[in-house]
Amino acid sequence: MSQARRQYTGLMVAVLVVLGLTAGAILGLLFGWVIMPVNYVDTELADLSPEAKEEYILLVATAYYYDGDLERARNRLAELDLPNPGQSVSVLCEACIAEGRSEEDIRAMATLADGLGVASPQMVAYLASPTPEPTNTPLPTDTPLPSDTPTATPEVPTSTPEPPTDTPAPEPTATDTPLPQPSDTPLPPSDTPKPTSPPQPTNTPKPKPPTNTPAPTQPPQPKWSASARLVGPGEDGQNCGVGNLQIRVTTVDAGGSQIGGVWIFDKYSQQYQVTGNVDSPDWGPGETKFEYGIGGGGSLCVASGQGGGCISDWTRDMPCYYLPPVEDLYAAGYCNCCEPGISLERCRELINQGTCFATGAEHFSWRVVFKRNW
After folding, report:
1. Contact in structure between 29 and 76 (CB atoms under 8 Å)
2. Which residues lie across from 250 on neighbouring strands?
3. What are the beta bridge partners of residue 101?
4. I want to staple 320 with a disulfide (CB 3.0 to 4.6 A). Which of 113, 130, 245, 295 is the partner?
5. What is the dihedral of CA 276, 366, 85, 361, to 10 degrees?
6. Cβ distance 87 to 297 under 8 Å?
7. What is the count of structural domains for the chain?
8. Which of 126, 145, 165 is at the close of a domain?
C-alpha cells in the first residue's frame, strides 16, 4: 500500500512541475510580447561607427557597380547623414588604393565616385572600360558594272580655223661697222648707238593705308579670385599627431586689406559664414572659419549674401578628415613626420605602403584667401 502511495505522489509532483513550467513560459511570452514589448530606438545608420560606415559605403558602391542605379545609391548614402557623401566616397576610395585593398573593392568605389562626379586622377586606372572584342567585318560584295548607257557625243566642228602661220622675223641687215678683230686689248666698237632712255613708270596709285583696326580687348577679369593651401605642422595648432579640422578664410581687397561682412558658402556642408564673426584677437576683421567632423571637408565660394548664390568660382576640394593628396602633404611639411628630409616620391611610397599614416591623419586644416579684383 505504501509503495502505491509513493508512486502516486511522484506522479503528481511531475505533473505539477510540467504545469508550472508551461504556465511560466506562457506568462513570459505574454509579458514580453504584449505587456512590455521590446522597443528598438536610436538605431539609425547615421549612428554607426566610422569603421561600420566605411563598410556600408563599400556595400553601396558594390551594389551600384552591378546595378548602375545611381539614384538608389544616393538614397542609401543619404541614410548615413554625411556632410558630403560624394567626397566621403572619393576619399575612402583613395584610402583603399593606398592600403592596397582588393581591385574589386577599389573598382566599385571608383565607379561610384565617378557617378557622383568626384573621381580623382588616382581612380582613372580603375575606371577604364574593357576593350571591346573586334567584330567580324563583312567582306566587300562585288559591285555590278554600270550598264551601257549612251552618252552625249559632242558635236565636232566642221571647220577648224588653222592657227596663224609664223611670221618670218626680219633678217638683220649688215651695217658698215666692221667686226672687231681679236687683239691683245679689245677695242670698243665704233659707232656704238647710244642707249635709249628706259621707259618711265606710269603713275600707279599708291595703296591706301589700312583702316584703324581696334585692338583686341582683354577678357573681363573675374570679380573674385581664390587661393587655397594645406596648413602644415607648427601652424594654427597643427602637428604630426593632432590638430584642428577646419578651413580658415580671409577676404581682402585689391590692395590686400581685409574686408569684413563678406558671406562665404560651403557647398558640401551647406553652411554660410560671414567674415569678421570670430571674436578673438588672433582673427582679423576679414576672417571666418568652417569647422568639420568625421568625413568633413569643404569647397567654398563668395556668396551674394546670407542664403544667396555664388558670385565667385568654387575653390578646390579640401578634405579635413581624410588624407589630402601627397603633393599637399609634401608642400605643407607633413612628409617630414615620416622621415626628415624625405623626397616627394619617398613620401608617396611610404603612404602607399601604409607606413606613414601618422602624418596628421584625420585632423587637417586649410587656409583660403578670396581677393576682390576691383
Report:
1. no
2. 287, 369
3. none
4. 245
5. -140
6. yes
7. 2
8. 126
Q: Is 113 helix (H, G, I), strand (E, B) or coil?
A: helix
User: Of the spans 32-36, 122-126, 206-210, which averages the highest pLDDT?
Assistant: 122-126
Which amino acid, 187?
Answer: L
- How many helices (H) and strands (E) would you count in the chain? 7, 9
Residues in the chain: 374
What mean pLDDT comes out for the span 88-97?
Answer: 86
**227 φ, ψ to 5°?**
-135, 145
Question: Closest Cα partner for 243 from 90, 362, 68?
Answer: 362
From 126, 160, 190, give the residue that closes a domain: 126
Report the share of the chain in percent with pLDDT over 90. Answer: 29
Structure confidence at residue 366 (pLDDT): 95
Instruction: Tell whether 234 and 353 lie within a shared domain.
Output: yes
Flag whether 245 is in a domain: yes
Helix axis angle, 344-353 to 85-99, nearest 10°: 90
120 with 234, same domain?
A: no
| pLDDT in the model for residue 372 | 95
- For 14, 28, 364, the CA distances from 22, given in Å and listed in that order, are 12, 10, 63
**Per-residue pLDDT band at 269 (split at 50, 70, 90):** very high
CA–CA gap between residue 101 and residue 47 (Å, rounded): 25
> Is 13 among the domain residues?
no
- Computed on alpha carbons and rounded to an integer, the radius of gyration of the chain in Å comes to 46
Q: CA–CA separation, 179 vs 258, rounded Å?
A: 101
Exposure on the CB side of residue 235, measured as CA atoms within 13 A: 13
Whether 244 is covered by a domain: the verdict is yes
- Beta bridge pairs of residue 229: 367
Residues 243 and 366 in one domain: yes
Cell of 161: 580655223
Q: In this model, does residue 46 exceed pLDDT 70?
A: yes
- Give me the domain span that covers residue 313: 224-372
Cell digits for 20? 508550472
> Is residue 172, in this structure, part of any structural domain at all?
no
Question: Is 246 in the same domain as 120?
Answer: no
Using CB atoms within 10 Å of the CB of residue 270, give its burial: 0 to 12 exposed, 13 to 18 middle, 19+ buried.
exposed
Backbone angles phi, psi at 4, to 5 degrees: -65, -35
Cell 514589448 identifies what position? 37
